[in-house]
Amino acid sequence: MIFGIGTDVCDIRRMRAALQRHGERLPQRVLGAQELPIWQQRSARSPERGLRYLATRFSAKEAFSKAIGLGLRQPMRWRACEILNLPSGAPTLHLHGSLLLWFETRGLRAHISLSDESDYAASFVVVEQNPCNTPL
């Protein structure tokens, strides 16, 4: 059963300007512990690749927060939600702390799609709920 759907489009030009304004504080605020080293490695090889990584993760977290209906309020926090890649390259969701507990107690499962093209990064998230785990 569909619990929620979220989508987000991030203007990479605005992300570039924000990164120039705030420096590393921006990715440190948005990216989780496993995402941050990936951003640093990609940025070291190519600042544009690092920027696109940051923009897609930002967009995916926004889309996820919409799909679960919380927006960016507790227990949803930027760093408690990580978008990592499986060996196949497919994006997958990793949650931490109270957000993980909130998500699991509702029997939820997320499907994520990411894309970036020229000036935009886009994300689409579908969250399913196992009908057997619906809270009373």
UniProtKB/TrEMBL annotation:
Q: Where does Mg(2+) bind?
A: D8, E62
From the Swiss-Prot or TrEMBL record, give the protein name. Holo-[acyl-carrier-protein] synthase
> What catalytic activity does the UniProt entry give for this protein?
apo-[ACP] + CoA = holo-[ACP] + adenosine 3',5'-bisphosphate + H(+)
* UniProt record, GO biological process: fatty acid biosynthetic process
Instruction: Provide the 4'-phosphopantetheinyl transferase domain boundaries.
Output: 4-122
**What organism does the UniProt record list as the source?**
Serpentinimonas raichei
Q: What does the protein in this record do?
A: Transfers the 4'-phosphopantetheine moiety from coenzyme A to a Ser of acyl-carrier-protein.
Q: What is its main location?
A: cytoplasm
Q: Which GO molecular function, any one, fits this protein according to its record?
A: magnesium ion binding
Q: Which family does it belong to?
A: Belongs to the P-Pant transferase superfamily. AcpS family.
Co-factor requirement: Mg(2+)
* EC number in record: 2.7.8.7
